[in-house]
Structure formats: C-alpha cells, structure tokens
Amino acid sequence: MSIEFDNNLPIYLQIMNYIKREIVTGKLKAGDKIPSVRELAAELQINPNTVQRTFQELEREAIVETRRGLGRYVTSEESKIMMIKKEMAGDLLERFIHGMQELGFTSEDIAAIVAEAVHSNSSESKN
C-alpha cells in the first residue's frame, strides 16, 4: 500500500478514502481481511493511533467489521459496498460539475459534453 499524503487533509481520512477505493475497485473484496493496525502503521510509517482512528471510523460506517481474535474484515454486505461506490461517484460528479460551472458552462453544455465523451469513449472501447 502506498499513499502520497496531502497536507491539507487529515491522514486518517486519506487512509479511509484509500481503503474505500480499494474496496470499490475490487482490490479488497467483501469479506477480505484488512491489515492490522501495527502492520498498516509500519507500512505507511505513521502513528498506530492514526490507523486505529481510521479503523474506528470505518467500523462506525459499517465498512469493516471486527471479528474477535481474528482481526478486521471488509463488510460482506454488497449493498454497503454499492452505497460507497455511489457516494464516491457523487463526489466525483459534484467536483466535475463545479469545475465546469467555474469554466462558464451551463448545465445543458455540461450534459452535452458528458454525453459526447461517453459516446466517444464507448465507441473507442468497441474498436
């Protein structure tokens, strides 16, 4: 695991986002074991308390679950994973739309640009 940390965002949030991305992209699958606090802290060279906070937040969001004596595991609830995926897609869309509006595009322009890009991308995928 390698993360380039951004000084403008708390490290525990960056690790949470990284783990969520690993789950959504299928690199970490439902029911997979995640590294221990010590393993992850050593790998990322950060304070174990930061990793502990990350895991506590992931547990609070029901993204990971602790199995007593066995460690922490990715939730086996596919609906929860799909919800994370939709949240991440929503965040991406919000940033994209905001950026396009800053460039002066209207909602109709943005919709047309996206439709054209999707069409172009799907045409390229077929070739």
Indicate the topology.
Blueprint: H1 11-24, H2 37-44, H3 48-60, E1 64-67, E2 71-74, H4 78-102, H5 107-126
Antiparallel strand pairs: 1-2
Written overview of the protein:
Helices cover 63% and strands 6% of the residues. It has 127 residues and is mostly helical. The protein has 5 helices and 2 strands. The protein is elongated and about 55 Å long. A two-stranded antiparallel sheet has the order 1-2. It folds into 2 domains: 11-76, Orthogonal Bundle (Arc Repressor Mutant, subunit A), CATH 1.10.10; 79-125. A hairpin with a 3-residue loop joins strand 1 (64-67) and strand 2 (71-74). The longest helix has 25 residues, at 78-102. The protein has helices spanning 11-24, 37-44, 48-60, 78-102, 107-126, and strands at residues 64-67, 71-74. The two termini are 34 Å apart. Keywords: DNA-binding, Transcription, Transcription regulation. Pfam families: GntR.
Any key phrases for this structure?
DNA-binding, DNA binding, WH_DNA-bd_sf, transcription, 2 strands, single chain, two-stranded antiparallel sheet, 127 residues, 5 helices, Arc Repressor Mutant, subunit A, WH-like_DNA-bd_sf, mainly alpha
